[in-house]
Amino acid sequence: MGKIVYDCSQPDLVLLRQAVFDRLREDRDWRLVEHEIRHFEPYIELKSPDYQGLLFFHINEVVWRLLAEGVLSPGFNPANPDLPWFHLTDFGNMVINSSEPNPYDSLGYIKHIRSQIPNPDNTVLAYLAESLSTYRHGHTVASTMMAGIAAERVFLLLCSSMCAAIESAKEKSDFEKILMRFPIKPKFDWMRLRIESLQAAKPTGFPENVSIMITAIYDLLRGQRNDLGHPRETPPMLSREDAFVNLQIFPRYYQTAETIRSFLAANKV
User: Fold this and answer.
1) Pairing of the two strands 4-6 and 44-46
2) pLDDT at residue 77 above 70?
3) Nearest to residue 128, comparing CAs of 97, 240, 82, 111?
4) Which residues contact 261 (CB under 8 A, 6 or more apart)?
5) Among 34-38, 121-125, 137-141, 229-233, where is mean pLDDT lowest?
6) What would the DSSP string read from start to end of 139-207?
7) DSSP tag of 213
8) For residue 164, which of 23, 266, 249, 63 has the smallest C-alpha distance?
9) Residue 97 backbone phi and psi in degrees, to 5
10) What is the mean pLDDT of residues 226-235?
11) Which value, in Å, is the radius of gyration of the alpha carbons in the chain?
12) What pTM, to 2 d.p., does this model score?
């Protein structure tokens, strides 16, 4: 990912997490926060070399947070089972080995979205930021509900673009009536059929294989949000791994929706 420029006099632990994750990926033998700058030179450029002591203090805090989040665990073998040694947990290995955006690195996650989508919607990003924050604190249910709201916002933006691109006056009027209703299900059913028909027609410039990406992923996130958000006999539960996967697939869902919106902005359907 490249070096981060770090100012120890104005600590930014969210930024520093990127460097820590970069080292965890590239240096599989890293087991201890060494207080020598040479170990971090591939990942960090200090704005002022006079603050090296503070850098290690801040790196220690990031490592402690990753321990609390279950990405790292104390010790690394039976002979060295305790802190300050550490190792990646099985879940931590899944986190750093994934090629998808990392929900534990919220800054990198949002940067990835901005790199793929020129003008991301501020409301979508606000709910995503909330989802990432609550996820890192172990609140998988709240995180998934926020991600579900962000997914719905993406879907409604896509609905608006579709409505504006419809050529048939009758079809446009019928869809406008559906959009004015509060329930999301009629909107979803109409859009699913319309996207499938467009994909089958293969108009020039229309992205391929979008039906599953849009309808299946949105239905998954919407279903989980509704299931978790309604009162029930048993407390709502969602595994850390499932919530992690949901957040990883969201950027692809959002990017695909924006690709369709770009097509609709330039073409009548």
Assistant:
1) parallel
2) yes
3) 111
4) 157, 158, 161
5) 229-233
6) -HHHHHHHHHHHHHHHHHHHHHHHHHH---HHHHHHHHHHHHSS-SHHHHHHHHHHHHHHHHH--TTPP
7) I
8) 266
9) -85, -15
10) 77
11) 22
12) 0.89
Residue with tokens 């992690």: 244
Q: Which stretch, 1-10, 175-184, 233-242, 253-262, has highest mean pLDDT? A: 253-262
Q: Which domains does the chain have, with CATH numbers?
A: 4-97 (1.10.10), 106-266 (no CATH)
User: pLDDT tens digit string along 149-168?
Assistant: 999 999 999 999 999 999 99
CB 106 within 8 A of CB 132: yes
- Six token digits for residue 152: 């719905």
Give the integer Cα–Cα distance in Å for 123 and 110. 13
Could you tell me the sign of the dihedral formed by the alpha carbons of 140, 142, 143, 148, in that order? positive
CA-CA distance, 47 to 31, in Å (whole number)?
Answer: 26
Q: For residue 212, what are the contacts with CB-CB under 8 A and spacing of at least 6?
A: none
CA dihedral 96, 98, 104, 107 (to 10 degrees): 110
Say what the pLDDT of residue 1 is: 62
Instruction: Name the residue with higher pLDDT: 231 or 253.
Output: 253
